[in-house]
Amino acid sequence: MLERTIIISNLEKDCMHPFSELVRTACQFQSKLLLSCGSKQVNAKSIMGMMAFDLTEGTSVKVTAEGADEAAALEALEDFLTCK
Questions:
Q1: Has UniProt tagged this entry with the keyword Chaperone (predicted)?
Q2: What integer pLDDT is reported at residue 17 of this predicted model?
Q3: 62 with 36: CB under 8 angstroms?
Q4: 3-state class percentages of the chain: helix first, strand second, coil last, to nearest 5
Q5: Which of 29, 30, 38, 59 is the most buried (most CB within 10 A)?
């Protein structure tokens, strides 16, 4: 299991539909992917969960990846959330 805290940057400026694009990115991986902010935790592969999540610039989010491709999944979500 890998965890990383990421500060969201440039997401709204560069990404037209951040919820669906983030879910699409997460679904490319087999690993279980969770995003946490404060006491709220959601499955990154769930569009309904992501819509209830705060994805605004400057928000600090903990990303947890667990599974065979966890390193690649974590890197992909970090790249997405920071619009690299």
A1: no
A2: 67
A3: yes
A4: 35, 25, 35
A5: 29
Tokens of 66: 């667990």
The residues pairing with 37 across neighbouring beta strands, listed in sequence order, are: 40
- Give residue 50's pLDDT: 87
The structure tokens listed for 7 are 């500060």
- pLDDT, block means (10 residues), the chain with 84 residues: 92 64 95 95 93 83 97 96 83
Domains of the chain: 2-81 (3.30.1340.10)
Beta bridge partners of 4: 63
